[in-house]
Amino acid sequence: MTMTTYIFAVTALSVLCAVGFLVLAARAARLRRHVHDLQEALSVVTERLAGLEEHPVAAPPEPKVFKASLDEARIKARLEVTGGGQAPEKYRYVASMAARGMSPAEIAEVLKISPREADQLVRLAQVARKGMGGDSL
Q: Measuring CA to CA, which residue among 80, 60, 83, 62 is closest to residue 72?
């Protein structure tokens, strides 16, 4: 190996090492910035958490209590819409339809209500008829 080749090889190796060092230094600087950003985010979250511990949020209402008040509101809304306790007109037809021999499923189809609701209304109409001495609603 000649002296020129030797100097060229050493120079090339030095340049490669310098480039590698610069790449590693740039990567280390990016990682330091990223760690700094994460530390700032962590301090913000820690401060918020400390604030929540100092001022705890009120517990949500019990589901049963909420459901009961929702049911009550629905009933009140229905009573307001239907005229304060008087059954809607289509419900009053149930008794006469049942008396004419229509099944709850047929009544449900005619009145556009669920079959279950029609069945319950037919039963209520029967109870009311018995309570009124056999008269229809």
A: 80
